[in-house]
User: Fold these one by one.
Assistant:
Number 1:
Amino acid sequence: MPAAPLLSTRASLLEYAHPCDTLMELAEEYGPIFNTDILGLMQIVTTSPKHIQRVLATDFDNFEKGKTFQETMSSVLGVGVFNSDGEMWKFHRTMTRPFFSRDRISHFDLFDNHAQTVVAKMKGRFQMGVTVDFQDLIQRFTLDSATEFLFGKSVESLSGILPYPPSTPFGLQSHEKTQPEVFADAFLSALEVLHERGDEAWIWPLYEMFEDKTAAPMSIVNQFIQPIVDEAVKQRNEEKHGVREADDAQRDTLLGHLVRETNDPNVLKDEILNILIAGRDTTGGTLSVLVYFLCTNPLVCIRLREEVINSVGPVCRPTFEDIKGMKYLRAVINETMRLYPAVPVNIRTSIKETTFPSDDPEEKDIYVPAGTPVPYSVFIMHRRKDLWGPDAEQFDPLRFIDERHHRITKNPWIFLPFNAGPRICLGQQFAYNEMSFIIIRLLQAFEGFELDENMGGKFSPKLTLTIYASGGIWIKAKEAGEIEEV
Ligand code: HEM
């Protein structure tokens, strides 16, 4: 197995953790698998579909998230589904899974009010002649949709004042933040600390010897979540003792479903928070990058809009059946997640010693000792030219439709934005529905999108647990029908 140079300083760790540069260079130089030594800890980094299949599916029982990962994440994620292994993970997964039934995740009224607000806010700003940070806006949309789905009550972050572009006179003005904005900021700060800890590897506790850096933001997050959880537990107890009638609307939320499985407020809080992270940042990040691609690929945008108008019309609310039939829309979403998978790098740790098959049939199997961390990067795997062809770096949704699609049908393990195997994303269908819905609503309202000139045609991807654009994605758009009216 080729050995990459030791990555043992914080600076190189920082670069290493950034999915878009050093890791990519290492993969190019050393091939789809390489070992690295982070501060004395051997790990095997892989971008090979065969190994990822082993880790996630065929040898699932031998690979866990592991103690180091859990300890790093626990001050934010607790023991929720994202951050547990073994029986605790099974408990969370079994408890949560039935909620994600097809019926429930196809309730599009959940998204529509928030989608209408997004469109209205964008129109308002464009009429003032200023651009909008689409990432900020869409994170509010996914936060409001996720909290409504989880608690039955949206935090209404869309009701706050949107930021103005830094280049305008308004851009420097600050406004008093609303409660949902304070919550969202605190949430992001806590996630950033988790990312820093990942960069610092196993010595992160040294940097936090005197202070748990997640404590302050998590106290704000908890002040928001705890009363909602406590109220749900109280309500459920009253129902059980016949003091109040069962509340159907409450029962139809994830929290309402979970309180029927357990009344432990800590388990409930952890699970809700895990799913909030899972459900908000992933879809928000993907939608932001997707709209960036629509700005920079106007022909894709025209074709996608044609599909939207032909399938749903200019104003009707899209249905589940409409979305199912929209092949190009699905291809645009998939191509976005191929180039920018929301979770670009992930990790598992081997429990017992094992081997990985070599990608080269001439070479011996690769020995994986017990307790070896195995980071795997779908970000790099999705860009490997030997798997995706010489145009792997280009944004081209048609690769999910034309003959190139056979690459994926022949080997589905080359495309894993949602992971795979027993820990596959629980919200995959919800995410496709939510993302499709809002894109359709946007393309009904606007004819096309353009980047703010100040973005210089580019965005800077950054990583917390998921990918996001540093500095935002500032855009403008033309309202539908504007041309005809002129
Ligand atoms: C573009 C959208 C999304 C992407 C790309 C995505 C991707 C992923 C990935 C890669 C994992 C595996 C994480 C790991 O093993 O460490 C995961 C797990 C999970 N996702 Fe998603 N996700 C998305 C949206 C959602 C949504 C909207 C929800 C819920 C509302 C959700 C719920 C979950 C849950 C509960 C898990 C944990 C599964 C387990 O460990 O058993 N995801 N997701």
Note: The chain is about 50% helix and 10% strand.
Number 2:
Amino acid sequence: MKIELEKVAKRYRREWILRKVDLTIEAGKRYAIEGPNGSGKSTLLRILSGHLTPSKGKIRHLVDGQVIDPDQVYRHLSYAAPYIELIEELTLAEALRFHRRFKEFLPGLDDEVILELLSLPGNSSKLVRHFSSGMKQRLKLALALCSDTSFLLLDEPTTNLDQQGIDWYLQLVERFAGDRTVVVASNVAVDFGFCEERFSVLQYKKS
Ligand SMILES: Nc1ncnc2c1ncn2[C@@H]1O[C@H](COP(=O)(O)OP(=O)(O)OP(=O)(O)O)[C@@H](O)[C@H]1O
């Protein structure tokens, strides 16, 4: 997926969070968005995903050169973020089944393979509510990275992961990100070491 932003700006009440965002996210490239806490990384990620409408400017999503209807953009992307909750009432096995009703996994992946990938043996009948924060984060990342979508958004991907979990995340990216468009928002270098393009949101704070 390719995304084009033209003079995009976002304000909450009277506060302008982002201004003059002229940005093209090229298909197949991997981008890191950096910036201090509260600078607008998540806001930009939500705009890129189509979940948040800019206060000013234009955004276009293209797949294979065709502009996607804004209502349909969600079908083409996977998004893992601290503010996107899992359904806590489901067991792990149910969560995988439920996810598949909306998004297919990549070719060759099924629930069993994902369960193995998660490295959470014996937890398939455990309620997501009873997962530790690190287990929940693994599940969010696996669902995002293993879904068959052309655009992957990861906000603070190593939140709640220990060193083993961080290594697991990096392996997951290496195996499954493939030639998809990837955007990672984070302040932690290890989260986006694989991204060839990096920029700070601070450039979009100037009036
Ligand atoms: N729904 C909202 N209503 C009002 N203000 C908001 C809303 N969402 C975000 N903000 C404000 O927008 C600014 C940018 O927030 P955002 O979450 O995009 O920053 P961030 O760079 O992702 O921060 P962090 O690194 O702490 O996650 C903050 O000042 C925040 O308080």
Note: The chain has a mean pLDDT of 95.
